[in-house]
Design a protein that fits this description.
The chain has one domain: 3-Layer(aba) Sandwich (Rossmann fold). It is built from twelve helices and nine strands. Helix 2 crosses helix 3 and helix 4 crosses helix 8. The radius of gyration is 17 Å and the shape is globular.
């Protein structure tokens, strides 16, 4: 595995590469980083070159320009980074807000995005619980400090306000998940401020445009969904399917929520492997 940071314009994007073969690019959700895909990549790196990009404002990616935190700006930066790294045609996998950014990237660079995999991600016309409220709070001075204090509380992390809707087994919130994603928010300089900036620049009016823009995503698109997700409910996801012109399938996984691939990495790797070949 190799990793680095590539600067494009005002943005610095952290990336990781693992494996050999045709390229698959993974985009993660809020407020995680590319490491969240490690379990899935372990089942793919013998056959594919797997790339992860940290979303700008999350993980190790940042920018001095506000427009790079918005979804079209993220896609522009990612397209440039992938070009700089010499990545040719690729399959693209996105979860949560990474699925939104994946759609922006596929819209911007359709000749390189050969196949698209969307897992538990934003749905036009739907607002995930709490995120609009957090966006309002992110505008206020001192909000990052308040969130830091809340994230220290196990009760908050396990509640619907925190990560309670992300896992079927809340035991996953402890151990490696906490060390990889919560501790950096608490202790790494700038991480929580970056997450607040990310929240401020999420424009749901832009997301709603995808009810129309989805028809321009003509590449085969596979949906894999945690069936018990309260954030992006499966019935709403299925209702979105007619917006896509080339649906390759919809797999609903029982006993699975938003970050189901953390609990079931082998299952997602199996589905991606068969689809991306």
């Amino acid at each position: 595995m190799t990793e680095g940071t590539t600067r494009v314009g005002a943005a610095s994007v952290r990336w990781r590469r693992d494996g050999t073969g045709p390229a698959i690019v993974f985009l993660h959700g809020f407020p995680l980083s590319g490491e969240t895909w490690d379990g899935v990549i372990a089942g793919l790196r013998d056959r594919f070159t797997c790339w992860t990009l940290d979303l700008i404002g999350l993980g190790g990616s940042s920018s001095t320009a506000d427009e790079d935190y918005a979804s079209p700006g993220q896609a522009r930066a990612f397209a440039r980074v992938l070009s700089e790294l010499g990545v040719g045609p690729f399959a693209l996998v996105g979860n949560d807000t990474g699925g939104w950014m994946a759609r922006e990237l596929a819209l911007l660079d359709p000749r390189r995005v050969l196949r698209l995999v969307l897992t538990n991600t934003e749905i036009p016309g739907h607002r995930p619980p709490w995120i609009p409220t957090y966006q309002v709070l992110a505008q206020l001075p001192g909000t990052a400090l308040v969130f830091a204090q809340l994230l220290k509380l196990s009760a908050f992390r396990r509640s619907s306000l925190g990560f309670g809707g992300c896992f079927h087994d809340l035991g996953h919130l402890d151990g490696p998940f906490h060390a990889r994603f919560v501790e950096p928010l608490l202790h790494a300089p700038g991480r929580l401020d970056g997450a607040m900036r990310f929240l401020r620049e999420m424009k749901f009016a832009r997301l709603d445009e995808f009810a129309r823009l989805h028809r321009e995503l003509t590449m085969p698109t596979l949906f894999v969904w945690g069936a018990d997700d309260p954030t992006f409910p499966e019935p709403r996801a299925r209702a979105m399917l007619p917006q896509f012109p080339n649906v390759a399938g919809f797999h609903a996984l029982p006993d699975a929520k938003l970050f189901f691939y953390e609990e079931h990495p082998v299952e997602l790797a199996r589905l991606v492997r068969a689809f991306a070949c």
